[in-house]
Amino acid sequence: MSDNLPIPLSAPLSRAQQSTLVNLVRRAAKAEILPRFRNMNVRDISTKSGRYDLVTEADTATEAMLTHGLQQMFPHALIVGEEAASADDKLRGKIAEAELCFVLDPVDGTWNFANGLPLFGVIVAVTRFGKPVLGLLYDPVMDDWIIADEATPARMVRAVGAERGLSVSKGGTLSEMSGYIHLYLLERGKQDEMAVALPDFGRTQVLRCSCHEYRTLAQGNMDFCLSGTMNPWDHAAGVLICQMAGGHVAMLDGSDYNAGLTEGYLLAAPDVDSWKRLRDRFSFLMS
Questions:
Q1: Which DSSP category does 106 fall into?
Q2: Which of 127, 136, 195, 268 has a CA that sits 20 to 30 A from residue 15's CA?
């Protein structure tokens, strides 16, 4: 299949197309992200919604390079980058209607990146009418990536070509599980109730980087992730990857995740039983 042809709805990207996508992401990281890491001044960093919501020249330049490359390869596709969506509030609303859409987070974990912490990544999701059909979580520092599509289990791939399959954790009781809870991204009225729930778990934390949070989930190193902010560039790729690593991911009300969603709570867990235990503990969020 030529990279310039639209993809049939019956199949995800071919292995050749996936390789082309990965190479584009790696080139963008080498050209636009890594040269700026720990090498920016104040003029290179701006805020969006608040002091913790940053955007840098690396974000905008990387998104531009990825968007241009994808437009060349898939001219019929809708491309929704985080920065483009911030500039055009109608763009995000088109995801659920698009037969083929690429959802991009050019530098996920921008706060970490801007503050010199080597915990950031590039996220690319391919969606079909909002349903994730391919996910890519790329680490520019280590030059490795986790990838899965709807027909292929999640796998870790290193730059030298070595691959290994991934599997989520075995789950367990609440006290046995550790996970990511984005406490300060919850609505203020729910934060106090959530704070009371935190000691029920083995440990909770955040990495300020969805890319690496989903990577650790898919590798079985953490057990769950709860998020109440439905940015598709943060979640669409990770949802599919965790599912294809054996996990159970759904909205807290039990409905399927869709990248077109703008509200709700998303819960990723290792299996259905663990998911239900977590869902019951977080039920106060739905009241």
A1: E
A2: 268
Helix, strand and coil percent figures for the chain, each rounded to 5:
40, 25, 35
At 241-285, the pLDDT tens digits run 999 999 999 999 999 999 999 999 999 999 999 999 999 999 999
Question: 170 falls in which pLDDT band (50, 70, 90)?
Answer: very high
* Residue 224: closest CA among 209, 208, 213: 213
Is the pTM above the cut of 0.85? yes
Instruction: Tell me the angle at which helices 15-28 and 57-73 cross, rounded to the nearest 10 degrees.
Output: 150
Q: Is 188 exposed, middle or buried (0-12, 13-18, 19+ CB in 10 A)?
A: exposed
**CATH superfamily of this structure's domain 15-165:** Fructose-1,6-Bisphosphatase, subunit A, domain 1 (3.30.540.10)
- CATH T-level fold of 174-286: D-Maltodextrin-Binding Protein; domain 2 (3.40.190)
Backbone angles phi, psi at 18, to 5 degrees: -60, -40
The predicted pLDDT at position 40 comes to 82
Alpha-carbon distance of 127 to 165, in angstroms, equals: 22
Contact 160, 144 (CB under 8 A): no
Strand order across the beta sheet in which 144-149 lies: 78-81, 101-108, 121-128, 131-139, 144-149, 152-158, 163-165
pLDDT band at 46 (very low <50, low <70, confident <90, very high): confident
Question: 41 or 143, which is more confident?
Answer: 143
Q: Where are the domains of the chain?
A: 15-165, 174-286
Residues 166, 267: contact at Cβ < 8 Å? no
